[in-house]
Design goal:
Layout: H1 5-35, H2 41-49, H3 53-81, H4 88-104, H5 107-118, H6 124-153, H7 159-179, E1 182-185, E2 188-191, H8 195-218, H9 228-245, H10 253-261, H11 267-294, H12 308-312, E3 314-318, H13 334-337, E4 340-344, E5 347-353, E6 357-361, H14 373-381, E7 386-392, H15 394-402, E8 406-416, H16 429-440, E9 444-447, H17 454-468, H18 481-484, E10 488-494, E11 497-506, E12 511-518, H19 526-540, E13 546-552, H20 562-569, E14 574-582, H21 585-600, H22 622-631, H23 638-649
Parallel strand pairs: 6-7, 12-13
Antiparallel strand pairs: 1-2, 3-4, 4-5, 5-6, 7-14, 8-13, 8-14, 9-10, 10-11, 11-12
Helix pairs in contact: 1-10, 2-11, 3-4, 3-6, 3-8, 4-5, 4-11, 5-6, 6-7, 6-8, 6-9, 8-9, 8-11, 9-10
Length: 650
Amino acid sequence: MLNFKPAVRAAASKVLRVTLPIASAVLCLWLLTRSIQLPSIGELTSLMSQIPILNWLGAAFATLVSFWSLGRYDSVAHRHLDTGLDGPRARLAGMAAIGFSQTAGFGIFTGTFARWRLLPGLSPVQAAQLTALTGLTFMAALAVICAVALVAWSPFPYAIPVGLFLMLGCGLACAATFVFPTLKIGQHVFRWPSFTAMSALTFWAIVDVTAAGAALWLLLPPDSGIALTTLLPAYFMALGLAIISSSPGGTGPLELTLVSLLSGYEAASVLAGLFAFRIVYYLVPVAISSIFLTRPALLGGTSPKPDMLDEIGARKEAAHRIPFGRPRSETAVIRQNGGHVQSFGLNQLALLDTPQISVAFFDPISGYAQETFAPLRHYARSRNAAACFYKCSPRVALAARKSGWRVLRIAADAIIDPISFSESGSDKRQLRRKLRHAEKSGIQVRPAAGTLPIAQLAQVDRNWHAAHGIAHGTTMGQFEAGYIQGQRVFLAWKNNTIIGFASFHVADQEWCLDLIRMGPDAPDGTGHAMIRAAIEAAKSEDVPRLSLAAVPDHRFAHRVERGLRRFKACFAPTWQPLYIAAPNWGHLTLSLAELIRLVHRPLPVQPAAEWQPADLAPEHDSDAAATIGKTGGDIHNKDEENEIVFMRRA
């Protein structure tokens, strides 16, 4: 027997979606007639005739500002969904779609149709996603606006507690989207807008509703007596109810709510102003939108203009193609954390895109740092993210500061010269004591040769986790077979059993400590012995620089990682300051918060592909290329050297 229940339920759902908006409009209009004496058409016409012509022109200009901001709103949504269509035509299409859908009603359907019709290359699914995203985020932004308006103007009793409650709810929701940036429903994963996108969407929403409210206020009869500060919060709330109702033009909910909230004023004046407002803000835009829907070619070309990234030749390469000839070996952490090699012209960065930021790790892989600041910021903006350099050297930090970026010292890198390293001297007294302990315990440290004993290393890693908990990630490596096989590994043996290992990122001019794992039964000094073995191996291969990686170095650094700093200090390294740089303090703060979240709540370990170094050296002359390889591409003079020294002391 055929089961008709699903088909019946689907049909009923479609009927409800069509009838409920109309029913809400009818119900609100009926309630309005029951609460006030409706003015006649003659009264409304007489009141509207009193509106000065300058007010009509001012309302038209305010309407233009409102729709212009809505076009910008659509632009942010295009970047979030990565449609690749962000540009003048997309903004005009957004304006036309909203002008059509706000009057026709049934916003999700009419808005989707209009965007799909006006933007060639936008699929029906993308159009629906775009419409849903703009609608939901606009309601969220409007809730924030209403909350501020309630607290600031208190248009009715208990408005302030209600506004504070809304603010608290919105704040908690934003915090939740930061901690949990994605939402999984069944097989579908949805990404919340970034804080950068939320800020932009809220700003454009404020411009939109304030301009629209100003247009309404200008079209009120001159003797209405309603102040702008009184009208705006009432309009914001009425607009929210009108959007929720999806009734054509918000008819019914908009009138009922405004008349109710402005009950101390003449209802005829309010309705006359609303009638004029509907002509300017609804009737004229829907007429213009209909013309564009009939002839979409009037919006202009279908291809967005080439932007900065197109002009300089930006491209991505997989993380496993990171070149061996690079100034900082630690940039290979992108092989595991989902990063990639990003090229801006002849300049390459080790870049990681997260829900909130686009972060370049350390110094440029090759090229000139000062040539990457503008394109990196543009690249981040194209995905509604903040831009930053993380753990960059003083030279790159200085270049960033000269480019107007904000710079903050955050860490210190422990640097050793393997070629000149010696265990003698009073500053290495603690190191010698640790090494003697390891030697007496029968510890032997040898470089891993041939195929790594992955099973045994994994067991050591599990033992380490059992003793220390979850490892930090994202900016630091985590144990994974494919990842560690692209590193230099040193094994600590005792009684023919591996009790610890240390792994190092390697490049042509530098090694950098990444993982150091020991079981709870490893004798004192095991870690020191593994580092010493790595220093000796680096010396035998004429590697001029070995990094023990960074430790926190900021105002509160003395409270964290004290044991790690003591461990590295045993080798008496040279401490090189490292910085975070971002275009402004807002980007820098957001970048720090996002990096802290990702370090302490890393994503699941991603299997690393086999490392296949690619020669990405820029096509400069040989002398310039050599300079780039050693300095990260920052040509500097004596004055810059002096300023770098000053930054190190700061």
